[in-house]
Automatic annotation (TrEMBL):
Compositionally biased intervals (Basic residues): 1-11
Organism: Fusarium oxysporum f. sp. raphani
Region (Disordered): 1-24
Record's keyword terms, sorted: Metal-binding, Nucleus, Zinc, Zinc-finger
Location, primary (coarse class): nucleus
InterPro entries: ZnF_BED_domain_contain
Subcellular localization(s) per the UniProt record: Nucleus
GO molecular function, a single term: zinc ion binding
Example of a GO cellular component annotation carried by this entry: nucleus
Protein name, per record: BED-type domain-containing protein
Length: 374
């Protein structure tokens, strides 16, 4: 009596699989897993899935069972390669190197060799020396093609400079444009000097303005003044000095515009500007710069753009409690900020804490407290 019910037969499916270890992290792989003995692929233990793998996916099982299709696959169809086919593939490889700008040894990489072997075991990829011998012919072919294109073109557009250097016009509302204008002038120095000796420009100065054309005469006067500055060595030296003066200011302005800037950094930025100028003065490379006048301007500008809260915030920086400390002016303005913005009772408490903080004393502000830990 035949039994047509129950589970379908597995036909020895499990004989072709071995138990696979479960990953230590578990998770979705916590169920039993098996590994194919032919291709080492791992999967969850499931009879139907294992049967589909053997029948449709596993080439090793099909070869062992004699189920390989008569039509050869891509990995076996070209088991033998003639010389012409090899040369064509080598040329294609050299062309790929030429177009992509890759190193000559690209096809010597172990991963690349393995990939090509999977595509066609009969093809041995070219070495760097082999690529080098093919590329001259590739270059020559492209040279012929480019020449044909140029010969057929009615007009050609030639680029005189490798990159464009535009002039930046300073604007009072744009804090970064002052240094940008100076640096753009220096970047275009060679182009400006070439303009100043251009024959067409010089001839335009020799031409007499038509009587009554006052505007044209004024333009010639402006042009003469421009050419005089361009040809003046001292002018360019002064522009270079101006760039050195403006660069610390521009750096400080950039820092003030960043996202996490705070009032405690305002005073240090002003002091950094002065320290950069002091370094220039000490180097004595630009003796024509009036550093004492610069210092006076900096002090005057700093007083106009800072208030007591900036000095108080600077005094609350733990890094200022060591070394030389703070200047008398900063301490006086920090003290004045406390007096003007607190009541008498608050002032006594806050001033005491402020003094202990500056002296690095007490449990809250001592050298071993949290605010001084590195």
């Amino acid at each position: 009596m035949s039994n047509k019910g129950g589970r379908p037969k597995t036909h020895g499916v499990h004989e072709h699989f071995a138990a696979a270890p479960i990953p230590p992290e578990g998770g979705k792989f916590s169920q039993l897993r098996v590994r194919c003995k032919y291709c080492s692929k791992t999967m969850a233990k499931h009879v139907q899935r294992q049967q589909n793998h053997l029948a449709k996916e596993c080439l090793g099982f099909q070869q062992a069972a004699g189920h390989v299709d008569r039509q050869p696959r891509i990995t076996t169809a070209l088991s033998i390669m003639d010389r012409n086919s090899k040369d064509q593939l080598d040329r294609a490889a050299a062309l790929a190197i030429f177009k992509s700008g890759k190193p000559y040894t690209t096809f010597e990489d172990s991963g690349m060799v393995e990939f090509i072997q999977q595509l066609n075991p009969a093809y041995k990829p070219p070495s760097g020396d082999r690529i080098a011998t093919i590329l001259p012919e590739v270059y020559q072919d492209y040279r012929v093609q480019v020449k044909e294109i140029l010969d057929d073109a009615d007009h050609l557009n030639l680029e005189c400079y490798g990159k464009q250097k535009a002039f930046i016009t300073p604007a009072i509302t744009r804090w970064g444009t002052q240094l940008g204008a100076v640096m753009s002038s220096l970047a275009n120095k060679d182009a400006l000097r070439a303009y100043a000796r251009d024959a067409m420009v010089l001839n335009s100065l020799k031409a007499k303005a038509i009587k009554g054309e006052e505007e044209e005469e004024e333009d010639q006067q402006v042009l003469r003044a421009i050419l005089s500055s361009i040809n003046n060595f001292e002018f360019w030296h002064e522009v270079e000095m101006l760039a050195k003066i403006l660069r610390p200011i521009e750096n400080a302005q950039r820092c003030s515009e960043r996202d996490h800037s705070c009032v405690g950094e305002v005073i240090p930025r002003w002091l950094t500007i002065q320290s950069r100028w002091d370094a220039l003065e000490e180097a004595n490379q630009d003796p024509l710069i009036n550093y004492s006048e610069l210092r006076q301007w900096r002090v005057q500008r700093m007083k106009g753009q800072t208030t007591d809260i900036h000095h108080f915030a600077f005094a609350l920086d733990p890094r200022t409690t060591i070394g030389e400390g703070l200047g008398l002016d900063t301490m006086e303005r920090a003290h004045r900020f406390l007096e003007e913005n607190t009541s008498n009772e608050e002032y006594q408490q806050l001033f005491g804490e402020f003094c202990r903080f500056r002296a690095r004393e007490g449990a809250l502000f001592g050298p071993t407290s949290r605010i001084y830990r590195e």
